Amino acid sequence: MSKNIHTADVIDIDGQVISAARERQHYTVQHIVEVCCISEKMLRQIENGESSSFYSFPIKVQVARKIGTYLNLKDHDYM
């Protein structure tokens, strides 16, 4: 079930889960960057719990969902 994002919502993205899923599926950072049309810095910041590359937290969540979907993760697996 998809969660609506509101500024009052507190969502914690577990980048270690995303990183582990990527590595388990033998995807390189470059592969995810290309198929998800994101920058390497964005992926690395999601995996490392950083956020300076994102204009807003909702955009970071949107990018995390894009990666998660590609990795066949459910939102509750990493949020």
Report on the structure:
- This protein is mainly alpha-helical and 79 residues long.
- Helix content is 57%, strand content 0%.
- Helix 1 crosses helix 3.
- The longest helix is centred in the C-terminal third of the chain and has 14 residues, at 57-70.
- The protein is globular, with a radius of gyration of 12 Å.
Q: Which helices and strands, and how do they pair?
A:
Elements (H helix, E strand, L loop, with lengths): L14 H10 L4 H8 L3 H9 L8 H14 L4 H4 L1
Helix pairs in contact: 1-3
Low-pLDDT segments: none
The geometry reads as: globular
Estimated share of beta-strand residues: under 5%
Radius of gyration: 12 Å
The proportion of residues forming helix, as a percent range, comes to 55-70%
Q: Termini, distance in Å?
A: 12 Å
Please count the beta strands (DSSP E, at least 2 residues each).
0
Helical stretch tally = 5
Helix and strand pattern:
HHHHH
Structural class from helices and strands? mainly alpha
> What's the average pLDDT?
89
Largest sheet: none
What features would you highlight for this structure?
79 residues, mainly alpha, globular
Overview in brief:
This protein is 57% helix and 0% strand. The chain contains five helices and no strands.
